Amino acid sequence: MSSEEQISLFNLSSPDPISAQAMDFDQIPTSAKVPITPGVYKTMDELASHCKSCQRCDLGASRINAVVGRGNLHAEIMIVGEGPGQNEDETGLPFVGKAGQLLEKILASVNLTEQDTYICNVVKCRPPGNRVPTPDESEACKGYLMEQIRMVDPKIILLTGATAVKGLTGDKRGITKIRGQWMEWNDRLCMPIFHPAYLLRNASREKGSPKWLMWQDIQAVRTKLDEIRR
Ligand code: URA
């Protein structure tokens, strides 16, 4: 099916609307020319099946697995990373490498478990050589992220690193400047935090170090969650 035909499937003012059943659903958003319509997915499984065949950007050509997300589909906290690395590409699961193990420890330090979180990335396919995803790649994938946020409906979104902040909110400020500050985006509470991979490169735990700052930030997240739950 051509992109034009795919687009026309979303044209609700069409005199001859095509029923959902008649749609070639697997094909619809895999072309970057076709926007991912908010509300199109009924389940995360539907979204995942599109991601697995997605060719909206060039990352689709080199992936082993599309990495959609893991954790509680109704979690109060959503964690958004940059994009899959090698371990994630191989397993199809986000944050399972060294950075992911550190993330798990950080969450566990304030008694947050997999049950409390849903973890995903701005881009679902691994950028070659672990480079930063381009703005076009982030944009091509953004509809999936927006749908994940809509479906999980988290109370708090943690944005790990500047790429996650920029990919979701468009805010281009450096992470050192904005980490630890609550920001509101689309009526949701977001907290930019350091990317765990950055912490792996900065071993110091001294006051004012990235690890120390992360400890402050994750405690603030825990406090906020407790407040929201009250
Ligand atoms: N880094 C990320 O940003 N995401 C992952 O899933 C793994 C490493």
Tell me what you see in this structure.
This protein is α/β, with parallel strands linked by helices and 230 residues long. The chain has one domain (3-229): Uracil-DNA Glycosylase, subunit E. The chain has helices at residues 3-9, 44-53, 59-62, 86-91, 98-108, 135-152, 162-169, 175-178, 196-200, 210-229, and strands at residues 70-71, 77-81, 117-121, 156-160, 183-185, 188-193. Strands 1-3-2-4-6-5 form a six-stranded mixed sheet, with helices on both faces. Mean pLDDT is 91; it is low at 7-23. Bound molecules: uracil.
Question: What is this entry, summarized?
Answer:
The chain is an alpha/beta fold and 230 residues long. Helix content is 40%, strand content 11%. It has a single domain (3-229), classed as Uracil-DNA glycosylase-like domain (Uracil-DNA Glycosylase, subunit E, 3-Layer(aba) Sandwich), CATH 3.40.470.
Q: Classify the helix fraction into a percent range.
A: 40-55%
DSSP, total strands? 6
How many helices? 10
Q: What's the CATH architecture? A: 3-Layer(aba) Sandwich
Which topology does CATH recognise?
Uracil-DNA Glycosylase, subunit E
Give the topology string: H per helix, E per strand: HHHEEHHEHEHHEEHH
CATH superfamily descriptor = Uracil-DNA glycosylase-like domain
Give the end-to-end Cα distance, rounded to a whole number of Å: 51 Å
Radius of gyration: 18 Å
Q: Tell me about the biggest sheet?
A: 6 strands, mixed
**Residue share in β-strands:** 5-15%
Low-confidence segments:
7-23
Count of discrete structural domains: 1
**Ions, cofactors and other bound molecules:** uracil
| Level-1 CATH class name | Alpha Beta
What's the overall geometry? globular
Task: Provide the residue-averaged pLDDT.
Answer: 91
Strand line-up across the major sheet: 1-3-2-4-6-5
Helix/strand/pairing class, anyone? alpha/beta
